[in-house]
Specification:
mainly beta; 4-stranded antiparallel sheet; two-stranded antiparallel ribbon; 6% helix
């Protein structure tokens, strides 16, 4: 009898390179699946909470991986409307 393969759970969909609108740094954009979201975060686009079990995006600057930001997907789509500093 053939061995069964272990179930692989995909935590992130494909990763894209984007510019972080807050820092201007080249960053990875990752889609977080709802089952993988276990903490509460503050979205920099709206300053509201992203609750656990909510699918969202995380933006990870390549030059500063400790400065990642979690965004609501809809806020990320509206990011060009943020006021410029």
């Amino acid at each position: 009898m053939a061995k069964k393969r272990p179930l692989r759970v995909k935590l992130f969909s494909k990763i894209q390179l984007v510019e972080d609108p807050l820092s201007g740094l080249l960053s990875e954009q990752r889609h977080i699946q709802p089952f993988a979201a276990t903490k509460t975060y503050i979205c920099p686009g709206c300053n509201q909470e992203i609750w656990p079990r909510t699918g969202h995006l995380v933006i990870v600057p390549l030059a500063d991986t400790n400065n990642r930001r979690h965004w609501h997907t809809s806020c990320w789509e509206r990011k060009n409307r943020l006021p410029k500093n």
